[in-house]
Design brief:
There is one protein chain. By secondary structure, the protein is mainly beta. It has a domain of 43 residues. 0% of the residues lie in helices and 38% in strands. The chain is elongated, with a radius of gyration of 21 Å. It starts with 9 loop residues before the first strand and ends in a 25-residue tail after the last strand.
Amino acid sequence: MAQGIKIGDEVAITATVRRRVTEDHVSVSIPSYGQPHSIVDQTAKVQKGQHIELIGSVTHIDENHVTVNLGIPVRLVTPYKPPTRKTPRMDKAT
């Protein structure tokens, strides 16, 4: 199911707006989630039935499911690279 997707990739999920809950929260329906989800939306222009993209990073992948973190956006600034050794860890055999 998740061919080509790796942990840490940024993905977009298309959700449908169900209704406005409060002035700054909107209830959305995510097709594969099966439960309503509330998100912060401070624009007054979103209407019922409108599609909205939720962007997040992949946190877990198994055979049939991909877990996406839609919370605080996390961006990779500098990937970790372990230090390389200039000399071997062990002395050469004599």
